[in-house]
Amino acid sequence: MRQKYKNYTLEDHEVWNILASKQLKNLPGKAHPEYLSCLAELENVLHAEAVPRFEELNEVLSAKHGWTISVVPGLIPVEDFFTLLENRKFSASTWLRSKSQLDYLEEPDMFHDVFGHIPLLMNESYADFAQKLGALGVKYIDNKKIVTQLQRLYWFTIEFGLIKEQNSTLIYGAGIISSSGETDHVMNDNVEVKPYDIFDVIEQDFITSEIQTKYYELESFDQLFRSIENLEESLMEHSEMA
């Protein structure tokens, strides 16, 4: 599948502008500086003025850490998703929500996939973590328990992760970054924030249809990558003992 850029309507570009402009104003002081720095690094190909062209994004992403965007029709089987991650391909839809869906969307659209997820792939530790998560998913795809654990890890890091910066708790998860409502919820409401421990995370259930009340806070993106190396070692040890 490919992005058919000429098919985007004026409303599509307007919706993208509304969503991106709102979050560009909302995120400073709430999103981690690394996300904002990565977004700034992509400003020539990812900005509020128009729907981004995947071909232009891919040139920059590939040159940085070897990632590209892989167009998918929507939600895909978990095995396919892990395989794409293992090969440094991030799955993204090309459809965009309508004006009537600005505040709530049940299924992730291109704004979530691209504005939320893509910038941090410019960060080496984060990009390597995502690739390693995919590789573990492929390796253990026949182990339902481990697949579930990896899905939990993805949810509480790549989708809804928080990270410490000095004395502040800031956002890096795409599910928060791409939603003004989620951003304000994390910053203003009474939520539970636990220190990040990968072995705690993989045992924590989540519900996709409800707003999050529990989050895990990293110390750094380096900690994120080191943690999945520790998980890989633990899985190998248990496999050898089985």
What do these coordinates show?
The chain is built from eleven helices and six strands. Strands 4-3-6-5 form a four-stranded mixed β-sheet. Strands 1-2 form a two-stranded parallel ribbon. The protein is α/β, with parallel strands linked by helices and 242 residues long. The model has no long low-confidence stretch (mean pLDDT 94). The chain has helices spanning 10-26, 33-41, 54-65, 78-86, 110-117, 124-139, 144-159, 174-177, 180-188, 198-201, 221-241, and strands spanning 68-71, 89-92, 162-165, 168-171, 192-195, 214-218. The chain is globular and about 55 Å long. Helix 6 (124-139) runs antiparallel to helix 7 (144-159) and helix 6 (124-139) packs parallel to helix 11 (221-241). Helix content is 52%, strand content 10%. Helix 10 links the parallel strand 5 (192-195) and strand 6. The protein has a single domain (5-241), classed as Aromatic amino acid hydroxylase (Phenylalanine Hydroxylase).
The CATH class turns out to be Mainly Alpha
Bin the strand percentage. 5-15%
Number of helices: 11
Dominant shape = globular
Distance between the termini: 41 Å
